[in-house]
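User: Just a sanity check before I run the rest of the batch. Below are the C-alpha cells for the first item. I only need the designed sequence back.
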C-alpha cells in the first residue's frame, strides 16, 4: 500500500543513486572537488548533461565563473575521500591534500581529475537556472573518458553511504 512520504524518504527508496565528483578550477589554478548525486544525462545529440548544486556551493561559483567543469564517476577506491569532499568547502580547503586524492591530467583541460575515476565527462557550461535552493547547471559535453577497471560508486540510504552497487 502506498503512503505519503517526503522527497528525502523517496531518495532512500530509490537507492542506489548515482554519484559524481564535480571537478573545477580554483582562482589559484588548483583543482577543487565536490561530491554531487543530482546529475543526469540530458541528450545524446547533442551530448549534454545536467547537475544540481546548492546555491552556496563554491564549486558552483567556479563553474559559473570559468564555464568549464569535469564530472567524474569516482571509484570505490576513494569512497571515504569522496564522502569527505561532499561535506567540506573548497573555498578555504585544498580537498585533494586533505583527503589524499591523487589527481591526473585530462587532455585539453586545465582541470585535473581523481586518478581513481571510472568516467570523466569534460564539459562547458551552456546555462544555469535557479531551482529552489539549488542551481541546475546544463552543460555541453566536449569529451568523455572511461576506465572499466575502476568500480563506480553509488549513494545509498539517502546519500548517507557511498559504495559500489554490487
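Assistant: Here's the designed sequence for the first item:
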Amino acid at each position: 500500500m502506498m503512503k505519503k512520504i517526503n522527497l528525502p524518504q523517496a531518495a532512500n527508496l530509490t537507492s542506489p543513486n548515482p554519484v559524481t565528483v564535480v571537478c573545477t578550477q580554483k582562482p589559484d589554478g588548483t583543482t577543487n572537488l565536490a561530491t554531487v548525486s543530482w546529475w543526469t544525462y540530458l541528450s545524446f545529440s547533442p551530448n549534454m548533461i545536467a547537475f544540481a548544486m546548492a546555491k552556496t556551493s563554491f564549486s558552483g561559483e567556479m563553474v559559473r565563473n570559468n564555464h568549464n567543469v569535469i564530472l567524474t564517476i569516482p571509484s570505490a577506491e576513494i569512497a571515504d575521500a569522496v564522502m569527505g569532499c561532499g561535506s567540506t568547502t573548497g573555498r578555504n580547503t585544498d580537498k585533494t591534500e586533505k583527503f589524499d586524492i591523487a589527481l591526473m591530467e585530462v587532455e585539453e583541460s586545465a582541470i585535473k581529475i581523481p586518478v581513481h575515476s571510472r568516467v570523466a565527462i569534460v564539459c562547458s557550461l551552456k546555462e544555469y537556472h535557479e531551482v529552489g535552493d539549488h542551481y541546475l547547471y546544463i552543460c555541453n559535453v566536449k569529451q568523455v573518458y572511461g576506465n572499466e577497471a575502476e568500480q563506480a560508486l553509488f549513494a545509498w540510504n539517502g546519500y548517507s553511504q557511498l559504495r559500489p552497487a554490487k
